[in-house]
Design brief:
heterodimer; A: Amidase signature (AS) enzymes; B: 2 strands
């Protein structure tokens, strides 16, 4: 592993707040890296060069005036391009929203601004967050900064690549079935899907509303913890927001795992997982055991069926959510003599193939005669998965699994077969179905030299314990890379 | 337990596309039909599970209706919303005629 040369968000904010470094120099440094490598990587749909420099000058002016700009003072943040930014194009990497400028900011964007963070750009994604490789973007794929012939994962591949390439120390993504954790794993960065409801979804363009959750990307566990503290906590603008403050994470990071009971999910640690990924998983378990955790095998029998349930539930919710793209109020309109034709032609021209596939899959699963066999049954499988997790958490404080079955694959390797692509999400989907938090922590490399992540899973609102274990794994990796 | 329905046909895909307001070419129908059939066939593996008496889960958290105080407060400016629309007239979204349409 190469040593990290770029400073962390925590160190940048400390220097900017202390007046020892200007926010402008921080932003200029990151813009210079973007200018150098972005043409090859394509992490961004839009780089906000002038806006970022102006925001940096405002932060510097505040510091000069003796004010504290906030805990992320001067820290560049990259935003997945399905997060609404007022007056700034928000495309979801779809032709149907190309050129759309939202009239409001997402709650997370507003909270970042208030914390002194600087939005440096909007990152590429699989169209409407539907995909696992960022190849489904209408604006072309993002490439993995560790190997430009490989995918960065997805759907938040642009955010993961931006952090991995040090274009920004922090990024936000959204995770519906693994869309933060899987690209974090493939790009060698930390990625967190918080408990459903911890982070407001106000201003996140909806994909599957009962599964979507916004979360952080960072190069360190500490940075991810800080970012989640800032974006988390109750928001009256999201009716599914949990009515309590954000979890306290930074303060518990050094508490270790002594005495914690951690279970390796048996169903996700065998068949279908690459041997090098399994090897890193067991090394991670050994690290946690040496640090005092009690490691055993956990069983989530219904996890095997999570993929099937997810690829009925998520498309069903998506088919409903994406009905709003009708050419009437925003986005692409293709003119036609009647409104029905206008709706149909606008949607046909605006949506890419994967979005069409999922809309049709969902429409079919919800249609008369098939509802009980498909959608209804998937909802019952969801209950079984929740029940299995509940049983496991009677015995364990945390669970452990791979994040992704393999390291990053080649561009184009899985684009012709949707089902093969969907199998990338097998380890990450169960947490979304259960609404529970999970995170990917970089843990060495595979036989091909590409990053491997391990996934920590926790019960609802178990983020503090999860981050403690993540910090232990990270410290062990730093130790070995010395 | 409910048996899984028969594999999705080309005609089913064409029907679903119409329901979803999507117009597919013949090539797309040829491409999408086996792809959707493969995903639905994989979904059929849940047949192995006994879900008798299992309550369906629609949402991971217990949802309660949330009502804010009935107090007037600023909302997004109408002009800002209309600025994003493809076609507006007199402060409203303009669409082609709908009254002359059949179903």
């Amino acid at each position: 592993m190469t040593a990290r040369v770029a400073p962390t968000a925590v160190s940048i904010a400390a220097e900017v707040r202390g007046g020892t470094r200007s926010a402008r120099s921080v932003v200029e440094e990151h813009l210079a890296r973007i200018a150098e490598r972005e043409p090859a990587i394509h992490a961004f749909n839009l780089v906000l060069r002038d806006e970022a420099l102006a925001a940096a000058d405002a932060v510097d002016a505040a510091v000069a005036a003796g004010d504290d700009p906030g805990p992320l003072a001067g820290v560049p943040v990259a935003l997945k391009d399905n997060l609404c930014t007022r007056g700034v194009p928000t495309t979801c990497s779809s032709r149907i929203l190309e050129g759309w400028r939202p009239p409001y900011d997402a709650t997370v964007v507003e909270r970042l601004r208030r914390s002194g963070a600087i939005t440096i750009g909007k990152t590429n994604l699989d169209e409407f967050a539907m995909g696992s490789s960022t190849e489904n973007s209408a604006f072309g794929p993002t490439r993995n900064p560790h190997d430009l012939t490989k995918v960065p994962g997805g759907s938040s591949g642009g955010s993961a690549a931006a952090v991995a390439a040090n274009f920004a120390p922090l990024a936000l993504g959204s995770d519906t079935g693994g869309s933060i954790r899987q690209p974090a794993s493939l790009c060698g960065v930390v990625g967190v899907k918080p408990t459903y409801g911890v982070v407001s979804r106000y201003g996140l363009v909806a994909f599957a509303s009962s599964l979507d959750q916004i979360g952080p990307f960072a190069t360190t566990v500490h940075d991810a913890a800080l970012l989640l503290e800032i974006i988390g906590g109750h928001d009256p603008l999201d009716s599914t927001s949990i009515p309590s403050p954000a979890p306290s994470l930074v303060d518990v990071l050094d508490r270790g795992v002594d005495g914690l009971r951690i279970g390796i999910i048996g169903e996700l640690a065998g068949e279908g997982i690459a041997p090098d990924v399994l090897a890193r998983l067991h090394e991670a378990a050994n690290v946690l055991e040496k640090a005092g955790a009690i490691i055993d095998t956990a069983t989530i029998p219904a996890a095997m069926y999570g993929l099937s349930a997810y690829y009925l539930i998520a498309p069903a919710e998506a088919s409903s959510n994406l009905a709003r793209y009708d050419g009437v109020r925003y986005g692409l309109r293709v003119d036609a003599p009647t409104t029905a034709e206008m709706n149909e032609l606008s949607r046909t021209a605006g949506f890419g193939a994967e979005v069409k596939r999922r809309i049709m899959l969902g429409t079919y699963a919800l249609s008369a005669g098939y509802y009980d066999s498909y959608y209804g049954k998937a909802q019952k499988v969801r209950t079984l998965i929740i029940n299995d997790f509940a049983k496991a958490y009677e015995q364990f404080d945390l669970l452990l699994s791979p994040t992704s079955p393999t390291t990053a694959f080649a561009l184009g390797a899985k684009t012709s077969d949707p089902l093969t692509m969907y199998l990338n999400d097998i380890c990450t989907i169960p947490s979304n179905l259960a609404g529970q938090p999970a995170m990917s922590v970089p843990f060495g490399v595979g036989d091909d030299g590409m990053p491997v992540g391990v996934q920590l899973l926790a019960p609802l609102q178990g983020e503090p314990t999860m981050f403690r274990a993540a910090a232990v794994l990270e410290a062990a990796m730093k130790e070995t890379s010395r | 337990m409910l048996p899984m329905p028969k594999p999705i046909s080309r005609a089913d895909v064409a029907h679903v596309a119409r329901l979803a307001r999507l117009r597919l070419t013949d090539d797309e129908l040829d491409q999408f039909t086996p792809q959707l059939a493969a995903v639905l066939a994989h979904a059929a593996d849940v047949e192995a599970l006994d879900v008798t008496g299992v309550v369906p889960t629609a949402h991971p958290l217990p949802l309660r209706n949330v009502v804010r105080a009935d107090v007037v407060r600023p909302s997004i400016d109408r002009a800002a919303v209309l600025a994003a629309a493809p076609n507006v007239e007199d402060g409203q979204f303009r669409v082609p005629s709908i009254l002359a349409e059949e179903s």
